[in-house]
């Protein structure tokens, strides 16, 4: 459970310590890639909780989503249309949806656990 | 299960890395003072001079305030102040020692250009700048007094100073100076003289003991300036 959180911290530390900077023109691509990655991550957590998690789907989804989002933003810049907004919208909606599902799942689990505990005490 | 956690860990690491880079890239770079000692000294000297000027100004103003407070009759002092300001703005006739510069066209044998109607504005500006560098106090070009807002421009091939056509040759430029002799030498050796010769114009300067410069004869329009309200 704590391993992914550790991974996140390690990633942030690594990123901060490398002093690596990307040009300002490409920062929008990176931000949309981050959004896509977060979306995939929460999708993965949800699938994990619902016991329908598949590694191949998750990993391929992670990388293709990032590539697709960045590609869409790139295409948008060259077409003169703010296409990245479409990606932001889609990922944002899915992100919120996934988080809501995860929250409901956790609450249900918590309520069930408490009920179980009470039943045990009453017995 | 263990595989799953490792995959999640990899993914979160990548996300963390991307977020950190994004954060670092959008962060404003810190502005550092990269001036060296020489530049710092220059800045310091500049500020000191400024301070000196401001102090002098303050002293003048304080003295005037004192005078105003002391005397019952304010009118002469205020008239004096206005007169002084008028002199400084170039609204009065001034005279003294100085030089007269004459600009006239030179036609060599193989001259092939058109008629020379007036001195190009950029040359006049260059000459005036050089005069100011060499210590000119007041300048008048062909009876047009040069003040701080005097425009020198070109319209329809004719040079205008204070919106007056300056076409006659030789063009007389009268300059007041404390040291006419050295100003005369400076003009005769100036870069402006060389540039004038490229446009087939020659410059001749003569130091003179007494010349009079006309006042600025138009209404001074003061724009983009506001009275500073005294803070109570």
UniProtKB/TrEMBL annotation, chain A:
Listed Pfam families: DUF1290
Entry's localization field: Cell membrane
Keywords: Cell membrane, Membrane, Transmembrane, Transmembrane helix
InterPro entries for the chain: DUF1290 (IPR009709)
Record-annotated membrane-spanning stretches: 27-45, 57-77, 83-106
Keyword Nucleus tagged: no
Family membership: Belongs to the sbp family.
Membrane topology summary: Multi-pass membrane protein
Protein name as catalogued: Small basic protein
Lineage of origin: Bacteria, Bacillati, Bacillota, Bacilli, Bacillales
Keyword Coiled coil: no
TrEMBL record, chain B:
Superkingdom of source: Bacteria
Record key words, sorted: Coiled coil
InterPro entries (alphabetical): DUF881 (IPR010273)
Alphabetized Pfam families for the sequence: DUF881
Recorded coiled-coil stretches: 37-71
PANTHER family from the UniProt entry: UPF0749 PROTEIN RV1825 (PTHR37313), UPF0749 PROTEIN YLXX (PTHR37313:SF2)
Family named by the database record: Belongs to the UPF0749 family.
Protein name: Uncharacterized protein YlxW (UPF0749 family)
Naturally occurring in which organism (per UniProt): Evansella vedderi
